[in-house]
Structure formats: C-alpha cells, structure tokens
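Async update (no meeting this week)

Hi team, since we skipped the sync, here's where things stand on the single-chain job. The sequence we agreed to prioritize is pasted below, unchanged from the tracker. I ran it this morning and attached the output directly underneath so nobody has to dig for it. Comments welcome in thread, and please keep replies under the output.
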Amino acid sequence: MSFSDVLKKYENFDFDNFFKNVSEEDAGSSLDKNKLSETDLLNLLSPAAESKLEKMAKRSHDMTVQYFGRTVSLYIPLYISNYCSNGCIYCGFCASNKISRKMLTLDEIEKEAEILKQTGIKHVLVLTGEAENITSFDYIRSTLILLAKSFPSISIEVFPMSVEQYSELKAIGVDGLTVYQEVYDRDIYAKVHPYGRKRDYEWRLECPERGAKAGFRLVNIGALYGLADVRKEAFINALHAKYLDDKYPDTEIAVSFPRINSSEGGYIPSHRLSDKTFVQFLTAFRLFLPRVGINVSTRENAEFRDNILTLGITRMSAGSNTAVGGYSDDSINNVPQFDISDSRNVTETIEMLKRSGYQPILKDWELIK
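Output:
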C-alpha cells in the first residue's frame, strides 16, 4: 500500500459540499473527542469550526506541551545553488526566469558554514534548485561530507532521490529530509509544473516514504498554500503525514505550512490562506496528529510567528537567507528564492523564545559513530 492508495478514496469526494454542510455543532462534537477520525478532521478544517478557534487553540497548546514540552528546535537554511531544470511557475528559481545563476564551490560552502557556526545553531538545512545535471548527486554528497564536520544534524531539500541514494547520504551524516508536494490537486499540479522532472507527480509523492525507508530521523512535508483550494490541500496533507507517522514510527514526521511569498516571476496566488485560517489549520493538525512536529519558517512575519508560537509550533527557522551564498554575499544581483518576512537574526529569535517561556533547542541530535 502507498499513499496513492489513500488518495484514491477521495478522488471523487465533494469537498465543497461537505464543508458547506458542516454545522458548528458538528465541529464542536469533533473538537470534544480525544482521538479524531478523518471526518472529524474535515469538520475542524471547515468554515464552521472558525467559531471554535479559541477552544481549538487551547487544546492544541495543551497537547503540544504534553508531547513536546515548552521547547522549539531551531534550524538555519543554507542555499548552495539556484540552478533548476523545472518550470515551477511560482518559484524564483524557475528555469525560465532570467536571473543570475550560481553554484557554490566547496570553498565557498565552507565560508558560509563558518558564518552559520557562529550562530550556535547545530542543525542546517541544505537547499538547491532541482538541476540534477548540474548540482549532481556527487556534488551534493561532497557538500554534505564537508558540512558534517561542523554540524551534527543536516537536513536536505534538493531533488528527490532513490532509497539507495538517501541511504548513502544517511551514512555520511544526513539525518533529515524536507520535500514538499507543493500541491496535491493533480490537475493544478500539472499546470504549475509544465516541464522538468518535478512534473512527475508520483515520483515526488513517494519521495518522503523513500526517505523514511532509508532511515532518516526526520521527514518534513508540506503543501504550498496559494496554489489550490486551501481546505482540501490541508486535509490531504494531514492524511499524508498520518500515513507516514503510522507506517514509520521510528521516523519523526513534521509538517510545514508555507504560504507563497513574492518571488522572481511575479506569481499571484489564486487561493489565499488568511492568518485566521492558518491558525485553524495549525491547531486542527495538532489535534489530529499529536506526535507530529509542526514547522513555521521565516516566510511568516515576526509578529505572526510570535503570536502562533504557543499554539503548536515545535520547529522554526531563524536568521534565514534564501539567496545562494547569501550569508557572505549580499550583492544586489544575488536573487533569493522567495522573500523573507521575519528578518530577525538568530540571537533575536532566541531571545523571543525565552521571553515567551520556551526553551530554544540549538542541538538535539548527534550521530554516534
């Protein structure tokens, strides 16, 4: 059984009609349950559940403290290349965008790593555009061998790989994989990915499971909100996380809630996710998935991240720069993948967490060799 089999159950499901007919009483009944069914999750994602948001937030907070304590793990992204062979129409790195392309050398990566080490954060997320013919497996492997000398926890967000390739990277110190399906609606997926390897829906959909099979400690998934109907996307994303969490109990599953920010190419989201609905989704996910980590990146502004901290967040990026080599090169031609909304540095983020009564975790993992 694969997650594609789970999706088949909802291929002809009328989400619009279901959400329209959920009453406040239905939402309240689902909220009162200790363990939520798929129908309960749909109820809590419906417009009717907005009236229950205060109670959802309280329960989500309590459940997060029960499972995770008052801790938030911090990580920092490192972009090493913006070459890409995909045609994602919403992304600043899209192959058709006329931007300055750059791939860091190992010496340049080491320079970036030295800057990141000074922040004290021991978890780095390595990112590239998806151009396997340029940023090859061997290049990525060499990069990760270099970074493993400085960071005990390394996650990757690069082109999807095979189980065998992931296993090889795990052996050199990689412990986490981030891969977003971007959009679960198959028709919209085809429209926003007109060409490139990423156009293969199934290959990407099965990628998180390949990472879990390879033994990664952490697998982080998400939908990019703005591409399709947000309530339907949230529901399928939650089912995906539950499928992985149930099937791979030794793997820590996490979910991100990225919303489209401005990028090179000027894509305008056709489906807006408001702050209020964002909070509703976050709390519904926590109640449906009590063991799953929830990550909010610097795509969101500082005030919003501060306000939702207590509602279920377990992981946050800090001090982020989404340009290739951006920590050491702030030139005007160095185009980021998307705009950062929370520009606070790592020290300021740590201070915010402590003021809020949370313990920032800079290192929570190290492979014993």
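Quick observations from my side:
Strands lie at 71-81, 123-128, 153-157, 174-178, 218-222, 252-256, 293-296, 315-317, 359-361.
The first strand starts at residue 71 and ends at 81.
Reply here if anything looks off.
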